[in-house]
Amino acid sequence: MQETLLNQSVSSSVLTEQSIAPCSTTAMRSLCVVSGKGGTGKSMISASLAFMLSEQGNTLLFDADLGVANAHILQGIRPTHTIAEVIAGTASISNVVTPCYEGLDLLAGGSGVAQLASLNGGELELLAAGLRSVEERYSHMVVDSAAGLSRQTVAFAAASDRVLVVTTPAVTALTDAYAFLKVLLTRRPHCRPRLVINRVVLPEEGERAAERLIDVTKRFLGVELECVAQLPDDRAAFVATQEQRPVVRGGGDSPLGLALMDLGRYVSADLDKVRPRGFGTSLHNHLIG
Ligand SMILES: Nc1ncnc2c1ncn2[C@@H]1O[C@H](COP(=O)(O)OP(=O)(O)OP(=O)(O)O)[C@@H](O)[C@H]1O
Ligand SMILES: [Mg+2]
Prior knowledge:
Blueprint: H1 3-6, E1 29-34, H2 42-54, E2 59-64, H3 83-87, H4 93-96, E3 98-101, E4 104-107, H5 121-134, E5 140-145, H6 151-159, E6 162-167, H7 171-187, E7 194-200, H8 203-221, E8 226-232, H9 236-242, H10 255-272, H11 279-288
Parallel strand pairs: 1-5, 1-6, 2-4, 2-5, 6-7, 7-8
Antiparallel strand pairs: 3-4
Helix pairs in contact: 2-10, 5-11, 6-7, 6-11, 7-8
Adenosine-5'-triphosphate binds at residues 35, 38-44, 65, 147, 198-199, 231, 233-234, 237-238, 241, 256.
């Protein structure tokens, strides 16, 4: 991993978890699936986790890859409304969510709308207020993030109750995951992101990758990362994409499907432990912070 990325430690003179304490009575628990590098499997994982969580209670899948959204494809639906209308101020979030199936709604990102990839403060505030108004309808929200270190990817992660950092074993993906962690932990020092290594071909490679990232994060950021899953590289991901369904839906007995089901059980239990902060309120606090 590049030396330059490893030389700085996180400043402690930043917002603490206490200073962004919950001020909402929401019961909705939020999980943000992030990575530094693109194409690590965030959408594939989010699709299956949202499906599994929806079996326990109403779940909102928020396609936060705004502008080049594609989470709807993995749920086999074609949304007629998107978040672009919320940002334009012409619709409320409850009017633009698309039901996927019993228990799961999708908040679709707009496709081909470049402006959505870099929302300004006012637009993000509009989104925060909109999300706050629908939170009481859902027990869980899964945020399928865009890749990279934009203001909004970091704000969405910082506002979520839990963050899942997805990387492949490739050194480029690990380096970018570290860069994301560094910025996130500067913003939210008490956050304890969970790590997922995806597209693992040889288990020992996955293990080495996890050890490497855990080690640098501990040494340079002072935070103990926990690796909660190693997901195999598996053609089941391609097949599920072609069939426009989450991997765990109707074919979850592949090695990837089984590993995702284990991850889903972990995530569900882990989210049960959190005291929900209210995503909309928390996003608002991070924007003004
Ligand atoms: N475990 C896996 N085994 C095989 N293929 C996989 C696996 N995980 C993801 N893929 C494939 O990798 C590609 C990228 O996956 P996906 O779209 O979920 O990544 P992403 O992180 O959401 O990308 P982006 O950053 O562009 O949003 C897809 O073609 C997907 O089917
Ligand atoms: Mg994606």
